[in-house]
## 1
Amino acid sequence: MNSAHPHSDDQALTSIEFRMRQAGEWLKLPDGVIETLIAPRRVLEVSIPIRRDDGTRERFTGWRVQHNITRGPAKGGIRYHPSVSRDETVSLAAAMSLKTALMNLPLGGAKGGVAVDPKTLSPAELERVTRRYVSEIFAFLGPDKDVPAPDVGTNAQVMAWVMDQYSIGVGHAVPGVVTGKPLALGGSLGRDSATGRGVVEAAMLVCQANGTSLEGKRVVIQGFGNVGMWAARLAAGWGARIVGIADVGGVISDPRGIDIDALVLATRNGSTSVVDCGIGEVLARGAERSTEVFALPSDIAMPCALGGAIDKDEAMTITAKYVIEGANGPLTPAADDILNERGVIIVPDIYANAGGVTCSYLEQCQNYAHLQWDEDEVNASVVNTMRAAFKRLHGFATQNGLTYRSAASVLGVKALADAHQLRGLHP
Ligand code: GLU
């Protein structure tokens, strides 16, 4: 595939549009179809005024984007972060459309977010932002229309407020309007660990496909939030050695393997960063140095923090042979090119982090059926779905001489185009 990347101010959006267009060309889609699939179906921008605890008034901006709703209800997380913007939300929603299509889940793609730093809000302010945001996008939402979930900066408590605010609006409890909820409100066992579980399964499968295994592999992880933390725990459980971990506070390392259980305990007991836990050696301090973790000698790198974390310079320093994208869009297009040239095998986000939305789908199934499945059943189902999708992805990439990223885009776009074609064009 042609690898010349166009340039624009919003790299994430340009990059996913470019990838979809490339996939459309590869598939030789009839004229105009790919442009229809690229364009977000609906983009809603809302104003969120709230009262601060000190009585002053503040205003934030939020978005909800339903990128594709051809194959099923729109599905995707809500992000609270200062960098959230219209274009970032559109790009992440498009990634969700490809992700659900690639994973063969009967869902569309969506994303939402508020441009706010949740760390600067008290719990009561966070609740007010959430309730007002949900009120503003209320008409978009519903179990058959659009189902949010957690993403960067949001969690199960935020999802509980989303469920409550929506339920108040319709006059009865609607657990299925949101996933990633607390268990007591119809959440699913296994949802917490699902994205990290999928990342580790992706790592195991790509190792297997290359005649090796995860056991004894040196792993470096950027991000120790929900995804990175679970990826570390589960990879260590399979015998991998976690030699480096980074978060916004900096980088820690231990060539013999970081004690993940101790690290989890320390962060649960109040340490705000991995560098403050007294575990491993502190190699660097500060968010801007967190990518130094990739320069540690390793076999597998798992970027599980924010998009665009790895650019050209960082790509040159990566020592790993495999990069498993736990975050959405962690590599810039330039970094992706460099790593491909260097022969590094990249397992792309729309597959590697799809364990989360896969489990969300299982949560929706449980909500529809008013059932609660046990944790082993849910975990096994997430793993089986990851395995089936890897079989398709690996087979397609190998048969057609494509990278996993290109193959994933082609398979995702093909599923969207087929559904679009079958439904036809109205009017
Ligand atoms: N925010 C997650 C993602 O980017 C989960 C989305 C969902 O479960 O709907 O895949």
## 2
Amino acid sequence: MCGIVGYVGTNQATPFLIEGLTKLEYRGYDSAGIAVFDGEKIIVEKSVGRLASLKEKIAGHVPQGLIGIGHTRWATHGRPSDLNAHPHTDCSGDFVVVHNGIIENYLSLKEKLIKKGHVFKSETDTEVIAHLLEELYKGDFEAAVREVLKRIDGSYSLVFMSRNDPDKLICTKQDNPLVIGLGDGENFIASDIPAIITRTRRTYILNDGEVAVVKKDSVWITDREGIPVTKKIFEVNWNAEAAEKGGYEHFMLKEIHEQPKAVRNTMSPRIAKDGASIVMSELKWTREYLDSFEKIFIVACGTAYHAGLVGKYYIEKLTRIPVEVDIASEFRYRSPIINDRTLMMVVSQSGETSDTLAALKESKRLGARTLAITNVVGSSIAREADQVIYTWAGPEIAVASTKAYTTQLITMFMLAVYMAGIKETLAPERTRELIACLREIPAQISEALEDVEPIKTFAKEYGFNEDVFFIGRSLDYDVAMEGALKLKEISYIHAESYAAGELKHGTLALIVEGIPVIALATQKSVYEKTLSNIKEVKARDAIVIGIAAQDDNELEKYVDHVIKVPQTDELLIPILAVIPLQLLAYYAAITRGCDVDKPRNLAKSVTVE
Ligand code: AGP
């Protein structure tokens, strides 16, 4: 997620801008910049890399002025570079904007503005907003901002500055956070409370659609139509560390709860307005291109590998193209059969995992065409692959991957529907039906996150067991693997996932009285078979916690506890079924007093083979 700061007051703006951006570094970023009005013009200074590079750049000529804005960029559109860094200006340099989020209709707006003669300097969606403001400005800064907001679609928090109105900043938000800090003769704007907490604890938390005009001694808040809004002052009583986690105790819990927004941000720009198809503007594949492949490989590590297993199911089911999934550290040593009729897909949240990068390079050496699915723009894997699809989950800080997994699943699903559309292997009405279900997923993740009390109880009751099994069939088995990894890596419980139908071939010998078994039974196509496996473990007196779809009233007769997830197409239910497993792992780790965000022996990005 990008970081935004703004200052207007009687002190120099730059010190707060740099201080505020420093406090937002935890959000992850690849470049930074500031803009300050010096009494005559707006000075813009920006630099790729860490804040230290920006500080070095302005050393000796620190911008002087009493009003300014700043930004740390987490790239979504356009690689990390000086030019793509924010703030962005219009042609004249009279209007400047910083932005966190995604403008979904930026390409169509950019084409229109270029036709009107606007000259763009960057590859970003954000720069469109500055030129749109210039185009719509008729002498009234606030009115022009409101006109801009009528024309942009997407998620955003925005702060605008104008040379023509150098005593005010205008800010607004939609689906991304923005707070206003109330000082004495000065006021502050920030994406998040940590940036302002040392200056003031009196804040306004902006709501979606609200527009604030911020001066050094006043804050005027209205709705998008200009109707004044009465706001209560929110007194911040968090300490700085808690503020970075948005009030959550750990980054992992914060990121689990960010999944509705992360999935929405990843999905929305890729669903056609008429809901009839998936649009992958970054690919532009043709029938001839897809027919040129005889096999697809999906290669990854850890959680990303588990996402790849689900991706295999999606692609094979919807396109009938054969898919082979492999663990990156094994792939190279299996003498894989790769040639120019192979499409190699690698999945990696960090885009820096050495095993995955090495597998990608090996597949290219053998002639494969390549595609990366990653969360980090400009990462090594993104740069090595021929083509890239980005998950827009925002930075994932906790070692245990959660929002990366669900956004990888949603991306794999959309890719499979996109490919099926090209190969005409999916009926139009089935496509619409799946996309309609897809649109409900963010809200359904929120719903699945509400049912947390039973999970906390299970974590307390079974959290001290040293062995736990996760079983399932088909897609349920793939999710069982992810659930076992989550529990293992943060609670240190020896959790094992097993194909439910395979238990009787040996592993059933380990099922003894009282052992907890998490049984996933969401896939109707294999439900009866899964039920018989559940009866097998119950007959050995295991404690079974079932994970079932909302409309399942059968499972509770055969298990000790049931956690239900919202009803959706069984292809999409893995995205919901994993939520209780993430929460179970989290609360089990809490029960056992483990370091949730930084588990022993593990790193967030494994850059060694
Ligand atoms: C997942 O919870 C783990 N932290 C780990 O397995 C991770 O998924 C794996 O190292 C792959 O990382 P990547 O997605 O950044 O390539």
